[in-house]
Amino acid sequence: MTTESTTEPRREPDRRARPHGKVRRRLGALLAITAALVLTGGAYAFFLPNAPTATAQQDAGLVAKGQELYNAACITCHGSNLQGVDERGPSLVGVGDAAVYFQVSSGRMPLARQEAQAVRKQPLPQFDPDTAEGRANLDALGAFVQANGGGPEAPMQTGAALRGDDPARGGQLFRLNCASCHNFTGVGGALSSGKFAPSLTPPTEEQIYTAMLTGPQNMPKFGDRQLTPDEKKDIIAYVKSVTEGNNPGGYNAGGLGPTTEGVIAFVVGLASIIGFAMWLGAKN
């Protein structure tokens, strides 16, 4: 007796290509590439600065004017390529226009003579920041140094716009980063090797800001990673609040610190008691 197999024969898979499947995949890939290109182009157009048309020409003219000023006032000490001159002046490569503004507007440069520290004095008339011509010349000189040496850039804002909205936070940051040299109220103090931390009363907001950026003399540099621009502005707000005659009352004893009056009263009182005791002893 024979048994018939009930197993159905295995069907071979249909290996014929499906044209609509390939077309769909290709269209999907094309759409993905197109979307990526559109997103990339949009992001580039969004973050790309304005086209440097007239600005580039204006900057070129500003740099050329700055070079003339540099050749007339700075080249003797700092060299024709900002490389510096031995025993005359350091290299200006990497100092940026922030250092140019601070040093020149405060009269520290050009140096009157070689000494332990450059002191503040009246700036040259052509670089006086209080005049329109002086400000324009400072911008031109800074543009030349910035274009050829790079470095920190001076802030775009000026004056009261550089004062932050939180002087209390500025006071905390000042006590943490600055008071050890400049004293609690910014009156300055002596350092080693004939150097000193200057008083913060004369400097303008721009000069304080550019000093924090560039770290003149023994002062450390406070870039935007160490102190954000807003934190710098809060420090400036605090400094101006304590250097513009804002005394809460009483004799400020030169503004040497928050406990100065108490220390003076203690010393004077103790000396008076000791003197009176000695007088009584001598009389007896």
TrEMBL record:
Residues 61-149, 165-243 form the Cytochrome c domain. PROSITE patterns: CYTC. The chain crosses the membrane at residues 27-47, 262-282. Pfam families: Cytochrom_C (PF00034), Cytochrome_CBB3 (PF13442). Keywords: Cell membrane, Electron transport, Heme, Iron, Membrane, Metal-binding, Repeat, Respiratory chain, Translocase, Transmembrane, Transmembrane helix, Transport. Coiled coil: none annotated. It is a multi-pass membrane protein. Residues 1-21 are annotated as: Disordered. InterPro entries: bc1_cytC-su (IPR009152), Cyt_c-like_dom (IPR009056), Cyt_c-like_dom_sf (IPR036909), Cytochrome_c_Oxidase_Subunit (IPR050597). The keyword Nucleus does not apply. Its main location: membrane. Its EC number is 7.1.1.8. It is an enzyme of class 7 (translocase). Residues 7-16 have a biased composition (Basic and acidic residues). The keyword DNA repair does not apply. It catalyses: a quinol + 2 Fe(III)-[cytochrome c](out) = a quinone + 2 Fe(II)-[cytochrome c](out) + 2 H(+)(out). The cytochrome bc1 complex is composed of a cytochrome b (QcrB), the Rieske iron-sulfur protein (QcrA) and a diheme cytochrome c (QcrC) subunit. This is Cytochrome bc1 complex cytochrome c subunit.
